[in-house]
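[audit] Reproducing an earlier prediction to check determinism. Same input, same settings, fresh worker. If the tokens differ from the archived copy the diff job will pick it up downstream; this log only records the rerun itself.
[audit] input (301 residues):
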Amino acid sequence: MSNNDFPKSKAKVLGMKTIMADFNHVRARVEPVDYVYTRKNGQNLHVRLIYPDQGDDTRVYPLVVHIQGSGWFKQNLYDHMYDFQDIVTSGYILAIVEYLPIPGPTFPSHVEDAKTAVRYLAKHAKELRIDLNNLFVSGDSSGGHTALMCWATWNSQQLDAEPSEPLPEVKAFINYYGVADFTSIADYASTVPHDSPSSPENLLLGDFLTLNDREKALRASVRYYLKKETDYAPLLIMHGNKDRIVPFEQSVELQTYCQELGLDTSFYCIDEADHGGPAFYHEDTLNIIIDFLKKHTQTNR
């Protein structure tokens, strides 16, 4: 018997107060089990799904695939579950993707993993209730770098472990304070010695990040893949101007380069903000993100 058919109890008791149910309210619900989207180098790689819950288990929703920051080391899939709750309750599934961490795999392994995860989600879209007409990709910090590299190469066969397998269309991408250019990251003020042999950047590149390796560093930078007269999905960039880890100038350089190419980018400076943290996940910033998603969400589905 459905909820609509089940009779409402008429029982009452002295002191009882009645609150009217709000059936339009949306809550965020985490899937009880993480999905293994691939096995690589002897390790299972997972994707965690968080759903809008309106009491209807048949409805499909747009999907935001998020790649977490971790300095390319092992990720904590719990890290942004609550930060992005408002995005979920505004009507988007959130998929948090794990990639094979350093040390060990080198560029472009993490980019390949992200694309493999999106293919898995697209392949299982029906059972996972994903609206394939509305896919988005985001990432923060090292995950922002991953999202940027996906953005720049999505419609090509570059940086892809399965280049013969078409990727689904992504409506737009979001980069939160991500690394954009390895050739210049060590040029700006930072609390991280980006050019040291043991830096995450060098572990990712598999070699020293020095002037002698600039060609290798450039090939791991988003601007290497951006070309004139090429279509790219819209991009939202958000970065704090007191970032102690990934210099704010990384996003300034990226926005400047994108403007020169005439690309569809929006850049928001979060004043006084450091590397991530609450400043990126309060009402004002989340509303910018949600408005960006809704602007690029196809509604006639």
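[audit] rerun output stored. Observation attached for the diff report: The mean pLDDT is 93.
[audit] end
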